[in-house]
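Researcher: Please translate sequence to structure tokens.
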Amino acid sequence: MTKTDIEQDSLFSAPYTLSCEHITKTFNNIPVIEDISLFLPKHGCISLLGPSGVGKTTLFNVLSGVEKPDSGNVYLNGEVSADIRGKVSYMLQKDLLLEYRTVLDNVILPLLIRGEKKNHARQYAARFFPRFGLSGYEKNYPNELSGGMRQRAALLRTCMMRNPVILLDEPFSALDAITRRAMQSWYVEIAAQMEFSTLFITHDVEEALILSDTVYIMNGKPGKITHKSEVQPNSAKDAGFTVSKEFIEQKKFILDAIGV
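Model: Translation complete:
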């Protein structure tokens, strides 16, 4: 890592847009997802919502390159990506922090894997601790953090891959309701500041509406996109959004689409 790298104001040097068309994936000759198409705009946030077992995680595995589709294409910046591994960041439900490493040394793991020197990696990552609400906790261990702080540390570690496209698989589901709402509000702000493009998996309709510009709804076996809802308003949502008429109407539409 050069001095110029460390002095950059942003994690990212280029915009990305993620999309896929007609993705189908089978296991043991049984189709799990079929004909899936979706589009993540630059600096946008979309959610994938549906009942358990519908294939949401399978789709994420395809989009992150963990699995290859049987048919269909994944695109970055409008170009087919034959091997997308390492080009998007992927965070699972559990934070998976290593308890024997300090918070800072957990965060820098992606940089070390990419061959960065430890001192440079620590210097680079430490710059982002205040923005992630972790300032002063660099030398603490994960068991000394609250649930919300652990998730912020895990997200910062994910960001150290320096990919502006992030896939988040129910990142706040293990948190209590109050902490979850605070984390949702925080993520909206941090995503705008750092110009992330984010795709969420969630089972929480309210979370999807709060975080997203567009909600894709999956149903069936094999899982298919059955509905798409553009969230209104499509700009920053104020504190009154969750009790607004628009919110209630959109929540009802999504619940009806899922069949709840």
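Researcher: Any highlights?
Model: The first helix runs from residue 3 to 7.
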